[in-house]
Structure formats: structure tokens, C-alpha cells
Amino acid sequence: MARITLRQLLDHAAENGYGVPAFNINNMEQALAILEAADSVDAPVIIQASRGARSYANDIVLKHLIDAVAEMYPHIPICMHQDHGNNEATCATAIQFGFTSVMMDGSLKADGKTPADYDYNVKVTRNVVDMAHWVGASVEGELGVLGSLETGMGEKEDGHGFEGKLEHDQLLTDPDQAVEFVKATEVDALAIAMGTSHGAYKFTRKPDGAVLAMNVIEEIHQRLPNTHLVMHGSSSVPQDLQDIINQYGGEMPQTWGVPVEEIQRGIKHGVRKINIDTDNRMAMTGAIRKVFAENPGEFDPRKYLKPAMEAMRAVCRQRLEEFGTAGQASKIKPLPMSAMAKRYQAGELAAKIGVTRQAAE
Ligand SMILES: [Zn+2]
Question: What is the model's pTM?
Fold first, then answer.
């Protein structure tokens, strides 16, 4: 079985200059669509489940779902990741259920909506890093709060996201603080705030540097060339998917996401994990709406879930190709978590601050 940790996968991505999309799952259809896409282009994948997904699908169902796809596709490295863990317990139980990686989002308090201070974030993230690294699991931290630079607002994703309005400086990760944070926590990957937000309504126009601060990524990458950066809320919200939904009775106001070429630019500057959920939700919804609009008499779930899976598979496959993930699966030999635990213990994976990748190797 080819389960892989986030750390090993992103180290490979950094060495070979590509990015890996992280797709969210809640059910069997999404798991199959992601793996079919990965298999068709020989790509490793990151599958992630939010707390909302875990309560929707049940931890035991998710565990066996991942076991099932790992057994079906033994040649595809699969990283199973907890999206937006809110405290130590969420991260610990994820690992208990077979996740190889967790995100401890200490930018918000455990309630998932109150912005937390820096010291709290360091403490809770460090706790999770200690626990996870003992067993070889990887940890993604977050510094800065995700939200729109246009409005100062956050968008809740499965109940996770701040309420109210924040100032610009809270919505942008400070590059110097990022260095301190990585040093203090030893996270394997760092999610940064630079104007992306969750959901479909990210931007009211095609984003430019004022609302999508790609320069923040470049500055952080300069200071932390060995830290894997993570872009959240990075669906592109393609026009054709908006159009299909609206053509078949949906009511989605015009919106813009993160253009793929901006993500590709990020990948040149240390972005290794790109979170995508909305695009897949839209692809499935558009396909289902089309079936219902064209065949109002249809009542067999397979008749609309199959086209939904096909539409999601197409989006996943496209992103795997656009981010350079395609063709990489067969080049990776996943290490078990026990081997990763030994590497942490030996100090091989300690954070390298301010050294260039070339100098570090
Ligand atoms: Zn997120």
C-alpha cells in the first residue's frame, strides 16, 4: 500500500519543482474520482478531510474508504491529510484513523472562528508537531488568518473561519514572523495568508496584486527556501463551471477564483501544496443539475453521480497536469511512518532556516 506522508511527498515535489493539489473528500464518489484522475496521469495525490467531512462521513467510513483506494491503486502514493485541525485532539484522532498528515490551524482558537494570537499559535502547533513527529506523521501549520483583502471578511468552510472583519496586516503573513514561527514549531509545511479565501466568492474581479499578494509568497520563500508553502482556498472557479451551473437552473453570482497561472508562479516560489475544493464541488453540482434539468424523471442516484464523478475527475486531472504532479507517482518510493519517525528523531528533517536548498544539500 502506498500511503505517503506529506513531508516525504513535498520534499520530492521541492526537489523536482512541482506542486501537489490537495483535494477534499466527503464520500466514495469523490475518493474514486480523485484516484482515477491520479492513476490516469501517474500522479501522487493529497486527499484531505475537514472536521466537517469527518463528522459527515464518519471516521470509520473514511478510514476504510482510504484503505480501499490504497488497495485499488497500490502504485499511487496517497497522502491522507487532516484539513484545518482546530486542536491537538482533532489531529491525534486523525492519525489514529490512518491519516499520515495533519494541519494544526492555530491561527484561530479551538472554536474555529476566533483569531488567535501568535504565542497561542506557536504553543498549540508545537504540541501537535511533537506528537505527530513521534509517530512519523507530518504537520502543516498556518500563520496569518485566511480572508479576503478586498473585504476584510473570511468565508467559512465547513464551519471553520473567522467571523467579522479583520485588518489587512492580520490577513497577510508577515515574512519575518514566518521565519520565527518555523523555527519555533518545526512544522513540515506552512500555510500562509495572502488574499486567498475559502468558498467560491474569492474575488469580485480577476485578481491583481492588490487582492492576491503573490509577493508575500516570494518574500517568505526567500527567507525560508526549505519550507514547503501551502496555498489554501486556491480553486480557480472556472467560468465554464459557473456557466454550467447557471445554465441548468443554478443561481451563482459572477465570481473569480485564483488563476492557474498565479498558482504556477507560486510553485516557482516554494508553493508545494495547493488546496482545491470549490472547483470539484462546482463540477459535481453542474453535472448533477444538467442531468436533473434534461431528465426530470430520473431518480436513480447512479445516473447523476456517475456524470458528477466524471466532471470532478476532469478537474482533478487538469490540476495534476497544470501543477506538474503528473508523471511523478512512479518516481516515488513511499516510506512508512515508522521510518519517517526515525528520520525526525535523528534530526534529519529539522527545519533549515535561511539556507538555500542547494547549500543545505
Ligand atoms: Zn483551508
Answer: 0.96
